[in-house]
Amino acid sequence: MAMTDESALGTDGLPIDPALIAEAAALEEATATERHAALSVEIEAANTAYYEADAPILTDAEWDQRFRRLVALEAAWPTLITPSSPTQRVGAQLAGTFDEVRHRRPMLSLSNAFSHDELRAFDTRVRRGLGLPQAPEPAPDLTYVAELKIDGLAITLRYERGRFFQGATRGDGATGEDVTANLRTIASVPARLTEPATVDARGEVYMPKTEFARINAEREEAGLALYANPRNSGAGSLRQKDPAITAGRRLSTWAYQLIEDDAAPTLQLAGTAAVDSAAPGVASQSAALDRLEALGFAVNPNRQAGLDIEAVIVFTETWRDERHHLPYETDGVVVKVDRFDQQARLGMVSRAPRWAIAYKFPPEQVETVLEDIVPYVGRTGTLTPVAHLTAVKVAGSTVTRATLHNLDEIGRKGLLIGDHVILQKAGDVIPEVVGPIVAKRTGSERPFAMPAACPVCGTAIVQDEGAVRQYCPNLSCPARVSQEFQHFVGRGGMDIEGAGWKVLEQLVATGLIKTRGDFYRLSVEDLEGLDRFARKSAENLHASIQISRRRPLERIIAGLGIPQVGFTTAIELAAWLAVEVPAGDDWLRRAAALLERVATEEPERFAEVAGIGPTVSTALAAWFVADGPGRGVLQDLADAGVEPEVPSPRPAGGGESAATGPLAGKTVVVSGTIEGYSREDAEQAVRDAGGKASGSVSTKTDYLVAGPGAGSKLAKAETLGVAVLDAAAFRKLLEGDDA
Ligand code: IVH
User: 50-54, 213-217, 402-406 — which is least confidently predicted?
Assistant: First the structure.
């Protein structure tokens, strides 16, 4: 459930406007999630531009305003706080000016297994690679070591003749950051080894759960933003510019990999790079762990050697529940072929060894009751069934709502209202109803049916072909209209600061706003009459409305909410209009007249606008046609005194918009069935928005757009912490929109 924490504070320690939080709390969870994603993207882009390109795209005030909106969203919806949220990273970013360290050996990543069968498949590959008989034949020469996978920050520690010399973060695997001074403050990082060995030890820095709780309590008292989880705070603490701060954080480490300089040369087999080599006599991972311990490192005691794959599976089962009693976080089990000579023979694929795999514990599932299924009407009229659940805590936050997407999904899952259900969080973020607990039915459960009439305006609901979508066809349905207005004044449109959902609802309900132009007819007095509006807020909102009168033309177009028309198309259309309509008085009215004429008389001309394909041009024509939904909209804005900034005429098209689209510089992977797109369409949409469409998820991936059937790519994205978007969030992102 949304929380209204009126005392939330920004990272600067200043309180966030309670109105912003209240506004965020009033959103539907899905909308809040979408806004959060869009704001994060924008802030991230601004951060990159500022810190990496030294070319700010937002003023300090603009950045601050967006950041505050993000903090307010997170205050109202704590489930939105993820490690990758800009609110969690800002500290690290500000501190992030460490020297670079090139790793002597790349710091590898691991492939993942999400089920016991995937562990068995790993065993099959290993046996094949070593020329051993397949299970159930015994393979006594092959044993595995199982270690807990520590959910922390990977580090490498260099010791020269027994003295701690340098420590670095993993970074991109090839180059990390020199955090030696900070690592020196950690008690479990020995300053001297028990013998003058020259080694690299690798492991994980983590923050114990109790320390995490203590620090957050302290931060709460000091009015600072709270850390989302121990992993986050551990990483933040290690990347402090001032080692005294790190010292105050009581971090700890577990070492799990040893690379000794005087490694036995026989271990360096041709073509098998980066095998862990240890001192003569250390011929296995289990021996290396023992040796790390003997050298004075902290090595996690919860490990087991000499296992076959079935025994590994037993180990994972034991720790799946046991882990909750540990004083630190673990998110899985790392399984490694024990013998180094066998590791060397197996070698690597891409950036992960073939001799190891990370088994991830399944997402935490909880039981709750599906109290009701409530259809919500969206901007395009689509009815989305939303599960109303008895409040339950899962993966660190309280959940009361989860989208059920559509009727088909409810049917597929076999859900009845009143069911006891299993709930989990996809990627530990988005709440998902997994299915009913049929055994708990009492007979009082009832099926959900889409209402025959719109729950908001009563208009008969229309069933779309293909049976997936039901929608309210009434263009004046208050639910649709409010959301259309919200879209118009939102960041993908006129970007009117302070025109939040609560405000809009009132403006529509009181009849002050009937058309988009009405925003520009509002007086300070009109606004002052609204609930929770003091003179000052009324003046501020009024001022932001006035400023938006001169927004660039493409913002108006994108803000109209024309189906299929996002920011990229809006840019192309604006460029075309700038050429077609001569500059001068009353430009917007003349442009509106041209659009209507083209739409009505020669719609094929839209298809000639660069970058606009047949689907989009049809949608444009249908919208601007004389008796279409766009009738009079632009004229109304012109009447109200909106005078957009028109781009200077340039030949339309040319790759420019691609480089500046909402996905500029972003790498996006599409996987599974994305509602409303074929795979090709979705990838084309990414490219049209200036992004790069890629086939595989890696650390370079910015977003995974995932739908039903996304499978291993989704799992991988979740492991790597890549942001996962559903079709709706993807659409918003393409529009460069958060509203
Ligand atoms: S071994 C080549 N062992 O998990 C093998 N990694 O998903 C390198 N991790 O980057 C890693 N606990 O940061 C290994 N007992 C453990 C681990 C562990 C946590 C982390 C490590 C690695 C990531 C891979």
Answer: 50-54
Say which DSSP state 662 is in: T
Q: How many helices (H) and strands (E) does the chain have?
A: 26, 24
Rounded to whole angstroms, the Cα distance separating 575 from 57 reads 21
Q: What is residue 71's predicted lDDT score, i.e. its pLDDT?
A: 81
CA distances from 260 to 137, 169, 275, 278, 737 (A): 35, 19, 11, 5, 52
Question: Residue 397 corresponds to which tokens in the numbers above?
Answer: 């936050």
Give the span between the Cα atoms of 46 and 629, in whole angstroms.
Answer: 35
Task: Find out whether the beta carbon of 147 lies less than 6 Å from any atom of ligand 1.
Answer: yes
**Spacing, Cα 197 to ligand 1 middle (Å):** 23
Pick the CATH number of 112-213+230-360 from 2.40.128.50, 3.20.20.300, 3.30.470.30, 3.90.1150.10: 3.30.470.30
Please work out whether the CB of residue 153 comes within 6 Å of at least one atom of ligand 1: no
51: number of Cβ within 10 Å = 13
Cα–Cα distance, 564 to 572 (Å, whole number): 13
Cβ(204) – ligand 1 distance below 6 Å: yes
Of the residues 204, 361, 716, which should be mutated to test ligand 1's pocket, given the most ligand atoms within 8 Å of the CB?
A: 204
Q: How far is the CA of 710 from the centre of ligand 1 (A)?
A: 25
> Which of 173-187, 244-258, 325-339, 687-701 is predicted least confidently?
687-701
Residue 380 CA, ligand 1 centroid: distance in Å: 46
Helices (H), 430-566: 478-489, 501-509, 524-528, 535-548, 553-559
pTM of the prediction? 0.51
Please report how the helices 587-601 and 567-580 are oriented relative to each other, as an axis angle in degrees rounded to 10.
Answer: 100
CATH ID of 478-547, from 3.20.20.70, 1.20.1440.20, 3.30.230.10, 1.10.150.20: 1.10.150.20
Give the pLDDT confidence of 386-435 residue by residue, as tens digits. Answer: 999 999 987 666 789 898 988 989 999 999 999 999 998 764 556 889 99
pLDDT in tens, 539-553: 999 999 999 999 999
Q: What is the pLDDT of residues 628-685, one digit of tens each?
A: 889 999 999 999 999 999 988 754 444 444 456 778 878 888 888 887 777 777 887 8
149 classed as catalytic: yes
Q: Which two tokens stand for residue 545?
A: 């409305």
